[in-house]
Amino acid sequence: NQRYFCSLNKEMISLSSISATTIAKQHAVAQKSHRSVGRFARSMVPSSHSESSASGTATTATTAEIGFDRDEDGYPSCIPREYIDEIEEPAALDVLKNMQLAQLMVPSLGLVKTAYVFEPCSNTTSSENVPAFVLLHGFDSSMLEFRRLIPKLNRLGDVYVVDLAGWGFSDCGFAENADIQLGPAQKRDHLQKFIEDVVGRPVTLLGTSLGGSVAIDFAAEYQGEWVNSLVLVDAQGFIDGIGPMSSMPRFLSVLGVQVLKSIPLRNMANKMAYFDKERYATEDAMRIGRLHTHLPGWTDANVAFMQSGGYAVSTRLKDMNLPSLVVWGRNDEILDPSYADKFMDVLPNAHMVWIDECGHVPA
Questions:
Q1: According to DSSP H, which parts of the chain are helical?
Q2: Distance (Å, rounded) from C-alpha 290 to C-alpha 315?
């Protein structure tokens, strides 16, 4: 919602994320934020990356860009068209049409056909280096989660939204082989390969919900090398693992994953995710949120992640020396807002922003 974008933009004065340009009455603050964030971002971009940064194009020297087969309207043909036709929101349809595919060789996984969206910085008045933002969605979600954030964030820098192996619209081969090992280590390897081969320079990682755990896990390994700063939005960081589900018999895990796809559960989660339920927790939002579940291999990919035990990053937070921003909706019904204070207690270099009248998922 508008309050979310406004408050987040103001806080990014001290980080490298969203500029304050969303509400006209804060125009003066927005201009100051632009200048301050720009200075911060430029200081975080090594000079050796200046050419790729200024160009506003992805670096793909060691990446095979194979592209999606597309239908006559420009949508990826791997997504059943009958489910695309059910979607009404233009922002979601735009993301689907702009989706790109990179063929990455990941050491722990082999070939991963990696779905992502790249939006270059829209601020064409600046010839100086711009930061690169990599956005990481939550559990069993997809890049479509960020459909309304992308055009706001790319006012400040290049924006990449990636679906990691086993999630969203990326394909690491589960349709052919249900026994692939897929956990945090493999997802970390995939993200490293994506940043190295596609982005080509250090980034600001922005993770929402479980995407926050993904960001923390990656930053703990690559802070100062591939990660310059961190944004955690209603992030999971203190709930380690996934409990008994990791040791369930496979047939029970399959049944549990199938429940995740069900319309009743998706509708319930949809309503829990938003503060303004009438405006955002719509049937269309539910269809957008489950679109990726219609792809082959979705069930086995989620079972593999469950059997891996999931993410356990709580003990790594104290060693996180990156500039960090913690963002939380005061009305989060999924992860209690008290977790925000825990992040601030343990992160050594963090700012905090509370968003009034905002739930777990910013609109």
A1: 2-11, 27-43, 50-55, 81-84, 90-98, 150-153, 184-194, 210-222, 250-261, 263-273, 277-280, 283-289, 298-308, 338-346
A2: 32
Q: How many CB atoms lie within 10 A of CB 124?
A: 8
Q: Is residue 360 among the annotated active site residues?
A: yes
Active site annotation includes 209: yes
Marked catalytic residue, from 34, 190, 292, 360: 360
pTM across the whole model: 0.84
Name the catalytic one among 33, 209, 213, 229. Answer: 209
In which order are the strands placed within the sheet that holds 227-233? 64-65, 100-106, 110-119, 158-162, 132-136, 203-208, 227-233, 324-329, 350-355
The neighbouring-strand residues paired with 223 are 227
**Cα separation, 300 vs 307, whole angstroms:** 10
Answer whether residue 253 shows pLDDT above 60.
yes
Separation of alpha carbons 61 and 40, rounded Å: 28
Tens of pLDDT along 41-82? Answer: 444 454 444 344 333 444 443 455 667 899 999 999 999 999
> Is there a catalytic annotation at residue 49?
no
Q: Which amino acid is at 237?
A: G
